Amino acid sequence: MVAPPDNDVIWARSLHHSHNGSPALGGVSLGIRDGEILAVTGPRGSGKTTLLHCLSGQLVPDQGEVWFNSVPVHTMGPRLRERLRRDRFGWIAPEPQLVPELTTWENTALPLLLRGASHREAKKAAMEWLERLDIGMCARKRPHTLQQSQRQRISVARALAAAPAVIFADEPTATLHHTDRTHVLRTLTSAARSHGITVVLATHDAEIAALADRAVPLLNGRRVATVALPAATDTEGRAACSLSV
Ligand SMILES: Nc1ncnc2c1ncn2[C@@H]1O[C@H](COP(=O)(O)OP(=O)(O)OP(=O)(O)O)[C@@H](O)[C@H]1O
């Protein structure tokens, strides 16, 4: 095994993975720098979700290596990977995945409570992020009483409240209307930048990818070449277009 470069928080080499014999990744390599916001782009079925699952230790690739802060993840057993995900990573799914029996603030505080934070500390962090996402007034409500956009904001607040090293966001605004989408994404990217959180954002939407520092386009489970372009209208990130090679 060759150790990854020191300045990459996540480094992956030649990832191959198939789902029940159906190929999803065909040799993807990439490095992600500390604090970077990286968009993984590509059409439906190009392997974005599978790549995020491999990078976050949810899935062990059939072949290839994944390293986090120079520690190999692909050789870890399930319990170590679970602890890594709990302590260092945040996850935002396309659909909010909340515990129906818990209130908004309890759902948001859950990762901190699982890590052993005090009730008071976890609630304070949860409330801060719920306020920033404009859902502080829903703190005592249960998910089923809220709108979809409010539930997805809870997922984003939950990921940020735990102050992870890396947030993996898989099409985090796919179910939101345009205005909600912009607010949620800007909160996520500006919070990540100010707190030095690395973000790996899977999206098929070029407008969303333009909020990232860099894009890694996938096609049929493989990387295609990237050309970084200065954005014409956005000062927060850079757009990228891809060329098949
Ligand atoms: N659990 C699974 N079982 C079988 N095939 C799967 C499974 N998950 C993904 N695939 C297949 O693997 C390939 C890559 O899927 P993946 O979900 O990683 O792509 P994606 O770019 O995230 O697509 P989408 O935007 O639709 O989620 C696709 O051909 C998909 O049908």
From TrEMBL:
<dbReference type="InterPro" id="IPR027417">
    <property type="entry name" value="P-loop_NTPase"/>
</dbReference>
<protein>
    <submittedName>
        <fullName>ATP-binding cassette domain-containing protein</fullName>
    </submittedName>
</protein>
<comment type="similarity">
    <text>Belongs to the ABC transporter superfamily.</text>
</comment>
<dbReference type="GO" id="GO:0005524">
    <property type="term" value="F:ATP binding"/>
</dbReference>
<feature type="domain" description="ABC transporter">
    <location>
        <begin position="10"/>
        <end position="245"/>
    </location>
</feature>
<dbReference type="InterPro" id="IPR003593">
    <property type="entry name" value="AAA+_ATPase"/>
</dbReference>
<dbReference type="Pfam" id="PF00005">
    <property type="entry name" value="ABC_tran"/>
</dbReference>
<keyword id="KW-0067">ATP-binding</keyword>
<dbReference type="InterPro" id="IPR015854">
    <property type="entry name" value="ABC_transpr_LolD-like"/>
</dbReference>
<keyword id="KW-0547">Nucleotide-binding</keyword>
<dbReference type="InterPro" id="IPR003439">
    <property type="entry name" value="ABC_transporter-like_ATP-bd"/>
</dbReference>
